[in-house]
Amino acid sequence: MSLYFALCTKKHSLLRQIFTIYRSIPKDGKQAVHRQIPILIRTIGSSPEVISIVLDPPAGSESLLMQVLQTLTDGAVPSQDLISSVKKLYYSKMKDVEILLPVLPFLSKDAILPVFPSIVNLSPDKFQVALARLLQRSPHNNPPLTPSEVLIAIHGIDPEKDGIPLKKVMDACSACFEQRQVFTHQVLAKVLNQLVEQIPLPLLFMRTVIQAIGAFPSLVDFVMEIMSRLISKQIWKYPKLWVGFLKCAIQTKPQSYSVLLQLPAPQLENALNRNPVLKPPLIEHASQPSIRAALPRSTLVVLGLVQESQASGQAQASQSQAAETGSSAADGAQEVTQESASVS
């Protein structure tokens, strides 16, 4: 076999025969091929014969082809012929996104995003490989995606439309959070700031907010701003996200008390009914004179700081006072008119 590989370095066309018989040779023979092939490929590089095999690999030689591609891209920038050939292979014959992994660092963002759901659908260990290659930086290339673009792309996956299990999407998010040196608190703040403006909000948005707080507690003030913006977007109209919003409020108390008090009275009541543990400390917080003075009566009623009948009575008293004020003003105006008439 060593002799045949030596001949391949002189006559590249012999290489295809190795791929053709690969599926039928015994296990020991395959192992020998895998030991020899990197040496051969490093010698001949992306020759026309290699490109020909990439475009049309014999059936059953997929694992050998992967080793060839890994060898050609390991520590080196592959030729454009090789990159385009791998893309053609993926789109025309081998609909397995794994074949793209060796050339991922050299693809454009526009080429990666359409296949990104399939990348997320890889097994956890292969997704980790893909993630590392997507973020790979070299002296000659910037990474095809920034960390923030990776997270935003993950949140852009629609499990039903893209046919990707929700758990796979969740696992992909978690894999990013494990790399805190890459997915820093600055990256997460940028991502959340963009995601909160999406319509509709991403399904996993609140889960990511909670994960961000868990990974970087220093983000709590920023997250309070995000939650305030969610109230303006009527987060309660999205049942699954509303549950996550309330869970986040529990995890970020006491900072979240001021946010909860921004809720309209019906939604605040719903929140407290769902999570009774929030009510006593929220009442204590709202009872502070400076805070209580700024709260609408409907909120005070929900908190039990004002009785509904009392609030109603006070409202009626205010209306009566306003009516009396209006009546007095009218009488005064009439007197002025009469005096003016007398003077005339």
TrEMBL record:
Q: Where is the composition biased (Low complexity)?
A: 314-330
Domain Symplekin C-terminal, chain residue ranges per copy? 96-273
The family database entries (InterPro entries) matched by this protein are listed as: Symplekin_C
- Ranges annotated as biased composition (Polar residues): 335-344
TM ranges? none
Recorded superkingdom: Eukaryota
Q: Where are the stretches annotated Disordered?
A: 314-344
Q: What is this protein called?
A: Symplekin-like isoform X1
